[in-house]
Design a protein that fits this description.
Blueprint: H1 2-13, H2 19-22, E1 38-42, H3 47-52, H4 59-69, H5 73-76, E2 82-86, H6 105-118, E3 123-127, H7 129-135, H8 141-145, E4 149-151, E5 154-159, H9 167-172, H10 174-192
The chain binds iron/sulfur cluster.
Iron/sulfur cluster is lined by residues 12, 15-18, 26, 28, 88-90, 104, 106-107, 110-111.
Length: 193
């Protein structure tokens, strides 16, 4: 099993399927192992992460790690703690309107679905509406954020996107910062103990 997982990750790190679609060399960003305690899946790496090749080294990452989780980089980037992946393992570039492209569906079908079969995590953290739609296609995003959900019979917490551009959502949902993120942080800290 372990060997198969390693082979899968080696192949994934070499994946260039979307090169033509993106118009540049894709850089698959993945961190973690088959025993990571928490599987975290977001939408896609940002342009900054495309350069640094380390997930969440941008403004969204600062908010997620230091404000929301309140953990340091040593904890966040420990592969035994977090398996960090996204619907698009690579930064997908921008469309003609300058907006980040939607994650290519093939990435989930070809890679993520298989990766998840090997990981014996205790918790899922799903970040952003696009990722939540894949795992909970028939549920309301705002309701998902404020309740406990389950994937493969394991607890799954849903977070809004921590992007600095996501201002309106936080204005409309002050209870997220006042209450829900504290519950989520405590759950994560318990699992990382
Ligand atoms: S986004 Fe996924 S499918 Fe596309 S090149 Fe990157 S790893 Fe491959």
């Amino acid at each position: 099993m372990e060997k198969e997982f390693e082979t899968l990750i080696t192949q994934l790190k070499r994946c260039k399927i979307c090169k033509e679609k993106f118009g540049f060399e894709p850089h698959p960003i993945i961190l973690g192992n088959a025993h990571s305690k928490i599987v975290q899946i977001s939408q896609a790496p940002s342009a900054t992460v495309h350069k640094t090749l380390t997930p969440f080294t941008d403004q969204s990452g600062k908010k997620l790690k230091y404000e929301w989780y309140q953990i340091g980089d040593d904890t966040f980037y420990d592969p035994n703690n977090f398996y960090i992946a996204a619907l698009s393992h690579c930064y997908p570039g921008k469309d003609k309107n300058g907006i980040d492209r939607t994650p290519p569906k093939i990435c989930y079908n070809k890679w993520i679905k298989k990766e998840l079969e090997y990981i014996d995590n205790k918790l899922y953290v799903i970040i952003g509406a696009k990722a939540a739609k894949v795992f909970f296609p028939n549920e309301n995003f705002n309701e998902l954020v404020f309740k406990n959900n389950y994937i493969n019979n394991k607890l799954a917490l849903v977070l809004p996107h921590p992007s600095p551009l996501n201002i309106k959502w936080f204005k409309d949902h002050p209870e997220f910062m006042n209450k829900r993120i504290i519950e989520i942080r405590n759950t994560i800290k318990d699992i990382l103990k």
